[in-house]
TrEMBL record:
One GO BP: salicylic acid biosynthetic process
Protein name stated in the entry: chorismate mutase
Organism in which the protein naturally occurs: Stakelama tenebrarum
Taxonomic placement: Bacteria, Pseudomonadati, Pseudomonadota, Alphaproteobacteria, Sphingomonadales
Cited Pfam families: CM_2
Keywords: Isomerase
All copies of domain Chorismate mutase, residue ranges: 1-91
SMART domains reported for this sequence: CM_2
Enzyme class per UniProt: isomerase
GO molecular function, one term: chorismate mutase activity
SUPFAM superfamilies, A to Z: Chorismate mutase II
Length: 93
């Protein structure tokens, strides 16, 4: 593989990484709003039923995209756990 080709691949990876960061930032802005709403409404920080449905949905999307469903579940679980942590903190405040 030529150095030029490697540089182009790396640039594509860098662009994708940047897009992922911005998408995650947008997602967390929305989940923060959800957390505030839950705290104000007296709702629990976690919703195990929704989490289960979201994981099942993401696993299906991953399969359709030819991505390892186990990886996608771990990734979503990490995000969900972080969101719940934020929601718990909002409820305490």
């Amino acid at each position: 593989m030529s150095e030029d080709m490697l540089d182009r691949y790396r640039q594509s990876i860098d662009n994708i990484d940047a897009a992922l960061v911005y998408l995650l930032a947008e997602r967390f802005k929305v989940t923060q709003a959800v957390g505030r709403h839950k705290a104000e409404s007296g709702l629990p920080p976690a919703d195990p039923g929704r989490e289960k449905r979201q994981i099942e949905r993401l696993r299906k999307l991953a399969e359709d995209a030819d991505l390892d469903p186990e990886f996608s579940e771990k990734f979503l679980r990490f995000i969900i756990d972080e969101v719940i942590r934020h929601h718990e903190r909002l409820r305490e405040d």
